[in-house]
Amino acid sequence: MKNSQLYKGSLTTIVMTLLGENGRMYGYEITQKVKEITKGELKITEGALYPALHKLEAEGVLEVEIENVDNRLRKYYKLTEKGTTETVNRLAELEDFIRNMQALVQPKLDTI
C-alpha cells in the first residue's frame, strides 16, 4: 500500500462507513471490500483491523452478532445507533479535512 501513514488515521472511519453502507460485515469481508473498492491499493491487515473493531465495540459504536456458518462461529459487526451518528460526524470531519488539504496543496501542485 502506498503511503500507509495517510490511511492509519482513517481506518475507523473507513470501517464505520462500510458498515453503514452494508449493514453488517465480518472482519475478512471488510478487508476484502476495501481491497476491492481501492483496486488493491489499500490492504487492511488483520493486525490493524481487529484492534480497531474491538475499540469501536468498547466505545459503543459497534455491536457484535455471532453466527454459526459452516460449523464455525463468525462475528458480524454492525453499527449501533450511536455508531450511525458518529459515522455521519466523522464523514463530515473527513470532508472538511480533504477540502482543507486540497486548498493547501493544490496551488503547489499546479506550480510543479
Automatic annotation (TrEMBL):
Q: Residues in domain Transcription regulator PadR N-terminal?
A: 16-86
Q: Quote the InterPro entries the UniProt record gives.
A: Metal_resp_DNA-bind_regulator, Tscrpt_reg_PadR_N, WH-like_DNA-bd_sf, WH_DNA-bd_sf
Which branch of life, at top level? Bacteria
Q: Specify the species.
A: Flavobacterium silvisoli
* Protein's name in the database: PadR family transcriptional regulator
